[in-house]
């Protein structure tokens, strides 16, 4: 039954807060329309967006209709939630370009055929609004005292809240009203920092349309070590293969802390809950569990073929299994440079295994840098054409991060 999606989301750990839980569960017995908003502040989504994406996938699998709302309008304001300072305001052209790229990425996760899911841009209804008319018709329903009492605004009052940002709650609430009136959307989902905005939208729909709608928030996911999801030494883990390759994406999940593997299998794969629980209870080999997590997560974002290639490359480079190294990230170096010799720390910086040459020097001096499986003893050791093995030089930073150096063919 459709309402069982709530039980699954709850069992998998998706739900932090929900309004009117009992009534919402009863409402989910029929197919509903729900939405999550994504502000196009970058040209690609990253792992930090994955939790709400997975929630929308579950909703669709149970027969509900998701709306992906790209915030082309609200991005011009900037959401103050969870921020200590005002976001950089993007130009209209930047926002429009980012929004189009994000739309393309979502087709990997949801089926938009026959309106099984919708992708909308709130710029379509927010930009034409008359400011005076909006204040008269919508602004009158908001209490300033209640707004500044919400956590997102209260935190910012200490550091300074711009008047532009103060309008954000009204605009997001108006989104919910518009989506309810035009598309019958009755459930808004989002991160736990969106609770105040979601509740404001629910109240606005009640006041203007006299209807009951609902809200659900997801927990802030951190690793067992206390780190924010999706952040690594080399930066964010993107869902766009041009910014994070399928191999790098696979390795991110494979490198999950042992303590997080079961939680991440529940949240970031579509494997049945019973299978995941059974897997954990049987005390399965942690390597196998991490492989399953990495493979399933990569398959969802990059497809089955890319997941297989990433797994094959990973097994080969770590365990000497398989034959394919094509998925390992590559940097092409001019052969003349290699003939003269390139300092090891320069290669580690150019390959992005280290963010700077100073960091590369520290890595080498601490004994954490390897070339073709051998530890690099000196930061300025010359790497030459003679170091090529089967056409590649394999760099390794620490225990798990690999990169290939090749010359042009």
Write up this protein.
By secondary structure, the chain is of the alpha/beta class. It is 45% helix and 14% strand. The protein is built from 19 helices and 15 strands. The longest helix is centred in the C-terminal third of the chain and has 17 residues, at 286-302. It is globular and about 75 Å long. The N and C termini lie far apart (57 Å).
State the fourth-level CATH superfamily of the largest domain.
HUPs
Overall structural class, as computed from helix and strand content, comes to alpha/beta
* Main sheet specs: 6 strands, mixed
Low-confidence stretches: 82-86
Widest sheet: strand order? 1-6-5-2-3-4
- Would you tell me which CATH topology of the largest domain applies? Rossmann fold
Regarding quaternary structure, how should these chains be classified? single chain
Number of helices: 19
CATH architecture of the largest domain: 3-Layer(aba) Sandwich
The fraction of residues in strands falls at: 5-15%
Number of domains: 3
Shape from CA axes? globular
Helix content: 40-55%
Mean pLDDT: 85
Radius of gyration: 24 Å
Spatial gap, N to C terminus: 57 Å
For the record, the CATH class of the largest domain is Alpha Beta
Number of strands: 15
